[in-house]
Specification:
Its EC number is 2.1.1.-. GO terms for molecular function: DNA-binding transcription factor activity; methyltransferase activity; sequence-specific DNA binding. Keywords: DNA-binding, Methyltransferase, Transcription, Transcription regulation, Transferase. The radius of gyration is 22 Å and the shape is globular. By secondary structure, it is α+β, with helices and mostly antiparallel strands. Helix 6 crosses helix 7 (about 180-185). The protein has a 5-stranded antiparallel sheet with strand order 2-1-5-4-3. The protein folds into 2 domains: about 40-150, PAS domain (Beta-Lactamase); about 160-260, Arc Repressor Mutant, subunit A (Orthogonal Bundle). It is built from 12 helices and 5 strands. The protein is about 50% helix and about 15% strand.
Length: about 260
């Protein structure tokens, strides 16, 4: 089949990059004594949880941040145990279900917005990633992941004021439909621009910011007497079941369980 010179050049460059990448992996695999050398680097990041798990979802490598957030002093207290053995229900079951889905060959988890409760009972927003680990034959033999604390907004970005106007709209009207086009108009930006600047400034997509705002509002309302159905409606969810699914995916609790806390 005929291809123009530009296409051939692009394909050639891509093949070269792949060969260099494969060669680099073989070199690293053959020369580095400890494949988990990154553990010490992640120990130095207090805002990042890092872990490697085996094919049954048991911890084999953890960093010090995870140890502290499990209320432990030493890594040995976590090694060989699964999430449901370390985290209180239903957090542990939720994390284990994530692990099992990844280990079963499902999709990797990419920047899942989650609200965690630490041993101090303080809540913290995180973005979680989990990816399967495979052997040379392609079989899944474990998984690795990180959970990053949500960073502070970059208020020095020149576009901060424009994007902040869209955030204010979300905070004031979280109970209403909030299409991306409406947020873009509020910020006087195109849809592509507001998506790009949301990530740069708030480290969240507009959709994640809406979810975060609605879950925070629902958490406050659950401390009162309103029914779960009324709270779902007030937070922009016309479907009670959709609200429950989103709330549990984000916090690890159903709204009723969260209320019982």
């Amino acid at each position: 089949m005929w291809r123009d010179a530009g296409t051939i050049g692009t394909m050639h460059n891509h093949d070269i990059e792949n060969r260099h990448h494969d060669a680099a992996r073989r070199m690293v695999a053959g020369t580095i004594a400890d494949p988990f050398f990154a553990e010490a680097l992640f120990d130095a990041l207090p805002d990042v949880v890092f872990f490697v798990k085996d094919e049954r979802g048991r911890y084999v490598v953890v960093n010090q941040t995870l140890v502290q957030r499990c209320g432990q002093r030493h890594k040995s207290a976590l090694l060989g145990r699964s999430a449901d053995e370390l985290f209180r229900a239903p957090f542990g079951q939720t994390f284990l279900a994530q692990d099992q889905a990844v280990l079963a060959g499902g999709h990797d988890i990419e920047d899942q917005l989650e609200l965690h409760l630490y041993p101090s009972r303080d809540p913290g927003w995180c973005l979680t990633r989990k990816t399967a680990l495979r052997d040379a034959a392609g079989r899944i033999v474990g998984l690795t992941g990180i959970s990053r604390d949500l960073a502070m907004a970059d208020k020095k970005n020149p576009a901060y004021r424009k994007v902040a106007a869209a955030v204010n709209l979300i905070q004031e009207a979280y109970g209403e439909p909030l299409p991306l086009a409406a947020l873009a108009r509020t910020a006087h930006m195109s849809v592509a621009q507001i998506e790009r600047y949301f990530l740069r400034i708030f480290h969240l997509t507009p959709r994640q910011m809406i979810i975060k705002t609605r879950v925070e509002a629902a958490s406050r309302l659950l401390a009162g007497d309103a029914s779960v159905a009324e709270i779902a409606q007030a937070c922009g969810y016309g479907d009670h079941s959709a609200f429950t699914r989103q709330f549990k995916a984000t916090t690890g609790f159903t709204p009723t369980q969260f209320r019982q806390l």
